[in-house]
Design brief:
Distance between the termini: 87 Å
Order of helices and strands: HHHHHHHHHHH
Strand content: under 5%
Structural class: mainly alpha
Helix content: 40-55%
Shape: elongated
């Protein structure tokens, strides 16, 4: 008689076969709590009051500017919106323009036709459902046409003073390049940054990281000699161990 093979429990099988045990836990930050605090302390000295570079006059124009900035530069958006916001700085005025007229103002911005459609649709939603006011919660903001989590976080931070982390391409790149908050998706990076950044630095962290990515830790070639955290940075490709002088930027 052939002996029956012993049954192996599912749990034991998973332990003996790592590939079947599911995804590995996400990588942790490469920095200690003290190093993270020092990174943001230096950013706070360098830019005591960092500000976003999208031009706007009220929460509505900020919302529109952020929607238009997807896959576009702030400089390019500002050039287009100066004339636009001079004639349409409320949901009513924007909706009255209509898609075609709005498109004529923003045609220099990438994907301008789809963005024009979304801006008109969100303006109409604000009028119909929110009394023409930009909502303050993430859940309500992401319910608007063309508004994702990143856009909602920017508006919550810049318009309403809430501590959020809007993970754009700069922040996503830095978080992974230097190992600050490695993640495969913007949402994963956002959650890690919110968890590791000291609470007293969280409100401005979004802008510090964006500006650092835009002007120092650039996509093609990081300017390591201009980096105030070069000695702390753990990026494999960094070219300097000497931090730049820590002086306020006007």
């Amino acid at each position: 008689m052939t002996k029956a093979k012993p049954q192996v429990s599912t749990q034991r099988a998973k332990k003996s076969n790592p590939a079947s045990a599911g995804k590995r836990p996400p990588a942790r930050s490469a920095y200690s709590k003290d190093e993270i605090r020092e990174i943001f302390r230096r950013f706070s000295v360098q830019r005591p009051e960092p500000r976003g570079e999208l031009e706007h006059t009220n929460p509505f124009t900020l919302l529109v500017a952020v929607v238009l900035s997807a896959q576009a530069t702030d400089v390019g958006v500002n050039k287009a919106t100066r004339a636009l916001f001079a004639v349409a700085d409320t949901p009513e005025k924007m909706a009255a323009l209509g898609e075609e007229q709005l498109a004529s103002y923003i045609r220099t911005i990438g994907l301008y036709r789809n963005k024009a459609k979304n801006v008109i649709a969100l303006s109409e939603r604000l009028i119909a459902d929110f009394g023409s006011e930009v909502p303050k919660t993430r859940e309500e903001l992401v319910s608007l046409p063309g508004v994702g989590r990143k856009t909602a976080n920017v508006v919550m931070s810049m318009a309403f003073g809430q501590a959020t982390i809007a993970v754009d391409t700069h922040i996503f790149r830095i978080a992974n390049r230097i190992g600050l908050a490695p993640g495969k998706t913007p949402d994963e990076v956002e959650a890690k940054l919110e968890r590791i950044i000291p609470p007293d630095y969280l409100f401005h962290a979004h802008h510090w990281l964006i500006l650092h990515g835009r002007y120092v830790c650039k996509a093609r070639k990081p300017d390591c000699p201009a980096c105030v955290i070069a000695d702390i940075c753990k990026a494999a490709e960094k070219t300097s161990e000497m931090p730049a002088p820590l002086v306020p930027i006007g």
